[in-house]
Amino acid sequence: MKAFRIGSGAGYSGDRIDPAQDLAERGELDALVFECLAERTIALAQLRRSLDPQQGYDLLLKERMRAVLPACVKQGVTIITNMGAANPRAAGEAVLQVARELQLPRLRVAVVLGDDVLPWMLAHDAPLMDSDQTVRSLDGRLISANAYLGADALLPALQSGADVVITGRVADPALFLAPLMHHFGWDAGDWQRLGQGIVVGHLLECAAQVSGGYIADPGYVDVPGLAEVGFPLAEVQADGRAVITKLAGTGGRVDRLTCTAQLLYELEDPGRYLQPDVVADFSAVRLQEIGPDRVSIEGASGHPRPDQLKVTLGYREGFIGEGQISYAGPGARARGELALAVLESRLQRRGLDGLDYRAELIGVNAMHGPLLGADREPYEVRVRLAVRTATRAQAEQVGQEVEALYLNGPAGGGGVTQSVREVIAVASALIPREVVRLECEILEL
Amino acid sequence: MKVRDIALARSGDKGNRATLSVIARDLADYPLLERTLTPERVQAHYRDIVRGSVQRYTLPHLGAVHFVMNEALGGGVTRSLALDAHGKTLSAAILDVDLT
Questions:
Q1: Is A379 exposed, middle or buried (0-12, 13-18, 19+ CB in 10 A)?
Q2: Taking 90 as the threshold, does the pLDDT of residue A332 lie above it?
Q3: Contact at 8 Å (CB) between A208 and A19?
Q4: Chain B CB contacts of A428 below 8 Å
Q5: Do A386 and B76 touch (CB under 8 A)?
Q6: Chain A window 164-193: which residues touch B at a Cβ cutoff of 8 Å?
Q7: Is the predicted ipTM greater than 0.95, yes or no?
Q8: Cα–Cα distance for residue pair A130/A427, rounded to 1 Å
């Protein structure tokens, strides 16, 4: 049986578009996946939807579709994406609109619904994970609650023969597992096969992170053509074994190092990677370089899937006010430290010193804390003050105090920046599977 | 000789936990890496940042040691006050550790 070719078109909501277009045009793919939801993306999208009911999907959806739809429709490449975010239905309509603009002959879009479980979460009082609180403690501040759906939620959409499958929250690797299950007819209880499908999904879900991105360390780990790093694809066999590779003529590299780094990325116990469809076991995965930029993957397995689904809840949690100012040349560090002392005194004066804050020097201790690298004398430093506040007005005071250092602070301070952002935080809870109402709506040109 | 001379590292975030993978560039260097980077050594190195415990998983056939560092991200990326809320820059710190 011919290998199933599945490409990774985006690893996050703001990812580059040109490498995805390249994959669509030259990849001879069967499927192309765009993974565009981070933890709080849906909460932010929900806020947009609350201001305009036609919004709430990924802001780059139309631009991405314009870039890849012509080639995908021409070659019969199925597009699967969670760019539906907080409004999969509107996203589906937006894709049809792009298809009309491009004057495509036909297009079938399947919209997968059911991940939005906010009403159920509000009605019940589930405990929050990693906390001694329950959902009720977020009352008045709760914005969204979305369950991580699995590959099973996408199968009806794929069975409908859709050209584009649009979802809200789905477990990222499941976006890749679903077309594999559909194509090869894998059984939902075939834990070993599903585990292997999950490892393929996990390797591809961050796009270039497996093909040369987020790894270069000049002189130690060199990556050719980094500016043109190609997005990856997998060639998957019926038994789940796969080869990870990228297109010829692209920058980057695919080898044991890039694949191992992505295999373990954001994992806790590699032997128990909890997914809606299976508890995957990566502990015995074998990677083998079988050619230039070609790595074979096998040896994943799995255990029965969990009874409950994970839910991400988005909620408001105050504001963060921030200011920064730079000092350079002789005594830069000492002037930066003097500026920090002044700022801490000013916070006291404003009554903000009891709040959670960070006062640090970029170039000295802002990334790794006061212990590591503390003995080095930098040429330039950037003071950073960030304070968690209850109100926007308090947050604005932080930047104001930093800016006032221009006239009132140490010598030679420059390049002040200020910002205020509303904090949209996330918490997690668990929900019984049966609570989720899955739906699949078909839209056609 | 330092960890950077034989390995590369990558960090990620999972809630309020930072994950850290350290991978030997040559599989023959793995035993040295495993001996050097015990959970205690890693916890000590990151003690100003990591407030909770550190678990280690070993994958000798891949040349990798993998750490889960608890209470490392100021409450998690969505609410942290840190400039690097994801903890993505944390991986490079381990490269400076002296090999045992």
A1: exposed
A2: yes
A3: yes
A4: 15
A5: no
A6: none
A7: yes
A8: 9
Task: Please list, in sequence order, all residues whose beta carbon lies within 8 angstroms of the beta carbon of residue A218, skipping any fewer than 6 positions away.
Answer: none
Work out the mean pLDDT of chain A and round it to a whole number: 96
For residue A218, the SS3 value is coil
Contacts of A149 (CB under 8 A, 6+ apart): A112, A114, A115, A167, A168, A169, A170, A171, A174, A276, A309, A436, A438
User: How far is C-alpha A237 from the geometric centre of its chain's CA atoms?
Assistant: 27
CB A264 within 8 A of CB B63: no
E strand segments, A11-67: 31-34
**Minimum CA–CA partner of A365 in chain B:** B48
**Sequence-separated (6 or more) residues with CB below 8 Å from residue A199:** A242, A263, A280, A282, A285, A297, A300
Q: Is the pTM of this model over 0.90?
A: yes
pLDDT of residue A8 exceeding 80 = yes
Residues A320 and A378 sit within 8 Å (Cβ to Cβ):
no
CB contact at 8 A, A188 and A277: yes
Does residue A354 carry a pLDDT above 90? no
CA–CA dist A259, A297 (Å, integer): 9
b/e string for A231-261 if b means 16 or more Cβ within 10 A?
A: bbbbbbbeebbbbbbbbeebbbbbbbbbbbb
Spatial separation of the C-alpha atoms in residues A3 and A234, rounded to whole Å: 9
CA–CA dist B61, B50 (Å, integer) = 28
Chain B CB contacts of A372 under 8 Å are 45, 48, 93, 96
Choosing among A130, A281, A368, A376, which should be mutated to test the B contact, i.e. which has the most B CBs within 10 A?
A368
Mean pLDDT, residues A33-39: 95
pLDDT for A192 equals: 98
Res. A376: pLDDT tops 90: no
The predicted-structure confidence for B45-99, as pLDDT tens digits, reads as follows: 999 999 999 999 999 999 999 999 999 999 999 999 999 999 999 999 999 999 9
The answer to whether the CB atoms of B75 and A425 lie below 8 A apart is yes
Structure tokens at A412: 């030679």
CA torsion, points A30, A208, B86, B42, in degrees to nearest 10? 110
SS3 content of chain A, % helix, strand, coil (to 5): 35, 30, 40
List, for residues B25-41, the tens digit of each pLDDT value. Answer: 999 999 999 999 999 99
